[in-house]
Amino acid sequence: MASVNVEVKSEPLNNHFLQGQPWKLWVAPILFLSLFFVFPMLSIILATTQMVGQVSLVTNWSRIIGIIGFTLFQALLSTLLTLLIGLPAAFLFGLYNFRAKGLLRLLSTLPFILPTVVVAAGFNSLIGPRGWLNLILMNLLHLGEPPVQLLNSLSAILLAHVFYNTAVIIRVVGSALEHLDPRLEQTSRTLGASPWQNFWNVTIPLLRPAMASAILLVFLFDFTSFGVVILLGGPQFATLEVEIYYQTMQLLNLPLASILSIVQIVFTLLITLSILRLGGGEIIPVRPRVQEERLRKPQYLAEKIFLVFMMVLIFVIFISPLLGLILRSITRLDAERRERGVILPALTLDYYRELFINRRQSLFYVPPILALRNSLLYALASSLLSLLFGGMAASALTYKIRLNKWLDSMLMLPMGASAVTLGLGYVLAYGFNFQSRQLFPYLIPFVHSLVALPFVVRTLQPVLASIPATIKFAAATLGASRWHIWYHIELPLVSRSIAVAGLFAFAISLGEFGATAFLTRPDIPTLPIAIYRFLGLPGALNYGQALAMATILLACCAAVMALIDLTQTRMYSGENL
User: Fold this and answer.
1) How many CA atoms within 13 Å lie on the side-chain side of 247?
2) pLDDT digit string (tens) for 63-115?
3) Overall pTM > 0.85
4) Which SS3 state, helix, strand or coil, does residue 468 take?
5) Do the beta carbons of residue 567 and residue 577 sit within 8 Å?
6) In angstroms, how far is CA 383 from the centroid of its own chain?
7) For the domain with range 1-36+376-415+444-577, which CATH number is right: 1.10.3720.10, 3.40.50.720, 3.40.640.10, 3.40.309.10?
8) SS (H, E, C) 299-324
9) Which of 404, 399, 396, 397 is nearest to 469 (CA)?
10) Which residues contact 373 (CB under 8 A, 6 or more apart)?
11) CATH topology assigned to domain 47-329
């Protein structure tokens, strides 16, 4: 009789517990998305319909077609080159165990969260006119001019895109490869399949969804690239992102900028929906492997040659620009103003000391160290906002209700929206006059958290869904409220995932450049904006200061990435932080 009573009482509890709460959890995230994503996007559409008559399509149509064509061309070419390097790297990390694998994987995936200004500074220090490569060649060959002219070219754009997005291929395809059931391949080998047949007929079909998602995601990032093109491509190359920024901030041509933004939104929306249809819920796997039964040490000569070749390639493409940046920031190679004669190369910390000194006595001077403080404060605020709204959405997604599928897709849309388009939407939605622009810096944490929101949700939702419902039911049966269940049961179980999600949001905010360029004020710059300004100023001292600031930002991002990796490792090994 007692068991009957328990069963009768548990049914209302089950309905109340599972069905009574989800819609409340969606209120705040939907309001946040409506104010800071939907409203700015609608403002662009409304502005386009109102101002389209002000644009002379006869005179601008050919330019628009040319910009769209170049944007697609460089995105396709960048994606292809990224696959050529990323797929072998993914198989390297997904199949083999070798020394320094963890460090090499960390360094090869670090570019994914690096700010574009840091990447630009790194390539500038390596292959720029005053970079290490040109300095070495000029010294060896006794040349008076830099022999390598890669900056302000399509090659520099493609190289930077490969540097950035190979991490996506490694994370997505490599993680999928690590989690494949090895028994499928073992069965194929038992039935007489050769290693090549096994690879082509078993492994590749199983990896196809992950590969398709990775390809589309890389194409999306290349298509919406802004900082790489504007910093490394030069004024002769204009993608949709660059042209929107140029038409808005320099020419104040809002009609044409709005039309270009609509084109951008259509393309990115189609790509994002394609990713979601392919199962984009695990687009960026942030959870490390649980089992290592697929991994083995290289045994054959071909495998060892492949390992050495890939390690050298990873060093050249991913590590050398960062190493060149660090070394160049502490090395004096150029003469400064009023200095004559031969300048001998020497190690120096002058560029770091100069970050605290206003040499030009400018009234509008902001010490770069204050720009770092601004970036850290914005990143902290963005992390808290992302965890607040992302945590609510992730919790709501653990319940089985019909709206979750549509609302989940809505949460992923900001990932496909370009930062420049978001920046323009904020300008149109919240005013373009002087008084409104004074308040724009307060919007920066919101746009940063909007960009980070999909990553936070995708980090927290699988962990929350894995918590057995029976534990929560038992706590509720014993009289625990919803708040007590969350605080005493769910929070301890997901605390490390919260730390990972918060660190991801912090890193994304720390390096965000596109939308911030629209919203920042000259007296409240972020560190990426300050680096961009110093890179555009003449003189060895300004160049050295830009590299010093880029090195500081690199150190911050590397520390965050190391914390993420450490937290993930301990999260699945059972250790305490």
Assistant:
1) 24
2) 778 888 899 999 999 999 999 998 888 888 877 888 877 778 777 777 777 77
3) no
4) coil
5) yes
6) 14
7) 1.10.3720.10
8) CCHHHHHHHHHHHHHHHHHHHHHHHH
9) 399
10) none
11) MetI-like fold (1.10.3720)
